[in-house]
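WARN no homologs supplied; continuing
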Amino acid sequence: MNNERSTQMAKNKQKILSIVLAGGEGTRLMPLTRDRAKPAVPFGGVFRLIDFPLSNLVNSDYRHIIVLTQYKSHSLDRHISQMWRFSSLLGNYVSPVPAQQRLGKHWYLGSADAIYQTINIIEDVQPDIVVIVGADHVYRMDFGQMVEQHIESGAEFTVAGIRQPLEESNQFGVINVDPNHPNMIREFQEKPATTEGLPGDPNSFLASMGNYVANTDALFDALAKDEKAADTKHDMGGDIAPYFASRGEAGVYDFNSNVIPGSTPTDHAYWRDVGTIKQFYDAHMDLIAYVPEFNLYNQAWPIYTNSGTLPPAKFVHAGRDRLGHATDSIVSPGVIVSGGEVHHSVLSPNVRIHSWAQVVDSVLFDGVIVNRRARVYKAILDKNVVLTENSTVGIDTEKDLARGFTVTPEGITVVPKGTIVDD
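OK structure emitted
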């Protein structure tokens, strides 16, 4: 008990600064990232992707946060300034920091370079520990538990690891643990063709989640060496994590051990990379499963956002041939389903579904209008898309491609922001 108390006291005395890496261009999510940064992409009806890491940090009681932005950051900056405002009484803040070209006439060369270019801000805060997280994953995580293990292990740098199937090792940074010290990394490899399974779970390996905890002085030293190195991509996962691992100073935190209040066996240790259209779409389908893979309704660990002053959703018309209804779906505030049919879909605020229209297996962003007898199947419609009467999306692939829409190999059709679909 005394050891637990002393560890907790040590944790409480540590000064923590959190850095959210939100400068990703998100080219694989085009056209959803045509006019916005990837972390600003809407998700789950009322949220944006940036809300998930920020909510996790706030729920972990880490409320000194800087957000490093770069590409097409206007809507992201606006969302942060409008939504993520704290009382100044206790000195809490979420502060967006644009790319500043402090080290020369170039933008961020990678995630490590992004942090190195903001060392002046970190030095002003003088934290003992820096928590570094990505801005475009969907998950719940108590970072306090990771920081606590980091302190106990004596590591200079700790990587959060998520268990993934062995055959997917070529898609992730792979963490090989030290068999004699399971909380320490023996080797860190970026997207190897093959790897070995975990000792107690031979069909899985630990993949990097892109979340890190570092002792500030050691991080500064590593970033300075990386900045001068010739053979580097200036990447946290590709360069900094392997550097610490090679010195025997890198710890690993198994995300499977993270305990979240209100979590269920189904959504425990849920984490999704939503870097591609398919991953983005599949993550939405996880939300609307009968037993959701990711439970948005866990108020013990809420995901914060600003839904504004919108009225409740409304469903009208109950005639035999015109029934306004939605099944197995998420319907956001401000939506009106007027005599149309919605099934297995996610509707963002202010969507309008008119009489005899059908929306199935789809994700509709803010302000989409589906007019009478229009049909939408297995599609993502960006903000303010309008389907005129009798129009279709996701029915005829050749027609959708001819109109300039994106159609993935899995048959997911994406319609860019503000498009008027008129057949």
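Residues 152 and 185 are 15 Å apart (CA to CA).
OK
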